[in-house]
Amino acid sequence: MERIKDLTKGEIILKIIPVIDNFERAMCVEMNDNNFESIKKGIEMIYKQFLNILEKEGVKQFSSIGEKFDPSKHEAIGIAYDDSKEEDTILDEVEKGYYYKDSLLRPAKVIVSKKMKKEGGDENG
Fold it and tell me: What is the pTM of this model?
């Protein structure tokens, strides 16, 4: 059984190595004002290559901005006062969350909205 796990890990590692190769190539390019956009595009392509590998292995990231905070898949690491948003709305994502197949692999780390409390404790005006 351990041998099967090692073979499976080896297969995944072999899929990741080309991503490392692409990062190494990107790091060797001398950056200047003339090639900034092409370097940025190259990094985006490597990022997509990595996400593709993860998706094929059953890992999917999810975005939470604009959703209602859900402690079963979000970890609130901060709050921001915003009276224009419903309370407990996710305003920003510090780290995306990930699922592995149907199970939460890592919760999203998020900033959650709160309403400003009116002075005197009277929230009706």
Answer: 0.76
